[in-house]
């Protein structure tokens, strides 16, 4: 009986961990999407030339990739 309870507890812990990771990933994706929106709005507000916008988008993409890589 205790073995069954231990297995249930482990399964529950693993499930909770997966849910927490999923929620963290979702939160990160939302924040990065908001960051992209802010960058786009700023580029339009400051009338950044198109060629420079492409460069800024690439820098922003690299920054987001680095954030994803370094966060747990």
Question: Strands, helices and their partners?
Answer:
Blueprint: H1 2-45, H2 50-70
Overall description:
The chain is mostly helical. It has one domain. The chain is built from two helices and no strands. The chain has helices spanning 2-45, 50-70. Helix 1 (2-45) runs antiparallel to helix 2. The longest helix is centred in the N-terminal third of the chain and has 44 residues, at 2-45. The two termini are 36 Å apart. The mean pLDDT is 88.
Order of helices and strands: HH
Strand content: under 5%
List unreliable stretches of 5+ residues. none
Q: What is the total tally of β strands?
A: 0
Mean pLDDT: 88
Question: Nutshell version of this structure?
Answer:
The protein has two helices and no strands. It is mainly alpha-helical and 72 residues long. The protein is rod-shaped, with a radius of gyration of 20 Å.
């Amino acid at each position: 009986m205790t073995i069954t309870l231990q297995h249930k507890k482990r399964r529950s812990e693993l499930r909770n961990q997966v849910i927490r990771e999923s929620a963290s990933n979702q939160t990160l994706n939302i924040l990065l999407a908001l960051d992209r929106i802010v960058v786009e709005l700023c580029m339009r507000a400051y009338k950044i030339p198109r060629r420079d916008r492409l460069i800024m988008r690439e820098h922003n993409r690299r920054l987001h990739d680095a954030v994803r890589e370094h966060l747990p």
